[in-house]
Amino acid sequence: MFNQPELSGFNIIEGDYSSSIIILSIIIAVFASYTALVMNQRVRQNSFFNKHLWSVLAAFSMGVGIWSMHFIGMSAMMLPVHMHYDRVLTIVSIIPAIVAAFIAFHVANKPQPTKRSHFLGGLSMGAGISLMHYIGMDSMHMEGVSYYYHLPLFTLSIVVAIIVSFVALYVFSVLQNQMKNWLQRLIVAVIMGIAISSMHYIGMAAVVFYVPKDFTFVTHMQMEDMHFLLTLIINGLGITLLLFLLMELFDRFVSNRINYYDSMTKLPNYREFERRFSTSTYSAIALIDMDKMDKRGSLHGYMAVDELMKKVAARLLEHKPSSMEIYRMEGRKFAFVSHKWVDKDKLAASMQKMVENLSAPFLLKDRNVTISTVCAIAMQEENNKRNSLYANALAILQDPNIQYTNQLVFYDENVHRYMFEQGILEDVDKAFAEDQFFIVYQPKMNMLDGHMVGVEALLRWQHPAQGLISPGVFIPILEKNHRIQDVTRWVIKEVCKQLQQWQLDSKVNCPVSINIPGECLTSHSLVNYLKEMTETYQIDPKWIELEITETSFVASIQQALRGVAALRKEGFSIALDDFGTGVSSLSYLKQMPISTLKIDKSFLDDVPHSRKDASIIQSIISLGRSLDLNIVVEGAETKEQIHFLADFCDNPIIQGYYYSKPLPALELSEWYNRFTKPETV
Length: 681
Description:
single chain, 8-stranded mixed barrel, alpha/beta, 5-stranded mixed beta sheet, about 15% strand, EAL_sf, 24 helices
């Protein structure tokens, strides 16, 4: 194999290389590397598919790509002889390439890879690639042609394979979090593709072919199994790409269903309602609420209640007016929404039929079960804000005189708004006493390194009668009636308490953002209370970021500036929330002693499809950078939005459902440990 035979009576033959086929082999190596980089990134992202499945698919893609490059590279060498391949060895040779690639991804995705693990992984992968190469060489048979290996070049090819593998592991484990846009990934893929191809052609140069002196050469190289080889390569690459596309599409579909659809009834959920409601105009909403579900649960069991909800949803869908959308809301509510203007009498007639249909018995475990409902209807009026429709419908249900007798009730500003607001205000103290308020935390992710750099504390209210009340409903009422300071103080205390617990447990180590209403910002007591809580729970102020809105400044610029300056003096950082939604932000922005600019979700909703919104975001990012501010983009939910932000922002901080929904503290700790482990090299 390595010993040079006696060559008297033999001629050494050298082949010619086709430059076009060499370039093709390198392109395939680059394509395989790029695809593998993309697939491997999915291991660290939220996905319906298990991360190990993505690792296997990435390894399969990389292995098939290396193998394809090898055989195409072999066909680049032209020898004037008959050639064919041992089909069994040809197919078997792909196994070491796939195994070697899997080892690379396994090492790269370890939470704390070390130099030793990199070395062992590189050694294993280099050996696997070399084994694939030389098994492939052994599968090549040429009539009357013998060969041996030039030992120095043979050794060099293996050393190069190991070095290339080591570099690949470094790229995957250390630099993969910095490869967020396609150009960065392409550059790395080109480097890897050229490196892998170099190993192959060094290995080819190590082979010395010789033939008897009386050997009869053919005019052109004749490869009998070219069709077989091309079929394997095309099918291998095609299957890899097809699997990736199918998994990617299915993953997006499942992610959308999980986040925006109710798992029980399969109807769009409250999140989907809020998402569409924030960008679309509705003319009417009808909220159907059911009574006595708790009693029914105790009588029939909660599994039976779930089955009843499915049957209710099916009946509502069956009789839904074609012009309306239906949503499963929190608790026992269903919402019907109309985009177009609808006649009040026609709407009343349609919803009356709906509640009458629901009054018919449901067959549940061989028993007839009846339900009682009420339908609250709010319609768009000239003097009403678009986003007040849902709050108006909820105000009807808050009426203590409401009767669940399958009746229809239209919103009356003079009656229901006051009663709803009074009900909310009266329930605030009870909410404190009964722990109805709770906090969830949404991660903020640094796209450059993939680590969590902060969280935003978001207030939630689980009302015993209304279910989960949206902050967009109850916070404006608390602000209007000057009760927001009590709630803000509660949030500050709970966040400080949670920060202390995280730091004691060494679980989460990043700043927490707290929303500060304008009324609190201009209050002299805010600074004192923050100092009191941070001292009580031994929290450094640098771990707390205070988010304020533009309207806080616009309402009283001088008082707000003094309030922010006092907070900065104590060591708290300040973020300007919902930037772009105010009316005088640019004229005051340079005066605001802030450290962070948060771009409002509404600008990102239609990106990258809306050129206007994309241009606005680019302008805001440029403005923030020129003022040396951190940029946080809210509401990122799709891969297209992430790619856009990666292309147009140097180091964006992303907050949105693409990475995670808002999580309770315990779930956030588990999420943090799973996705943001530190890496060492």
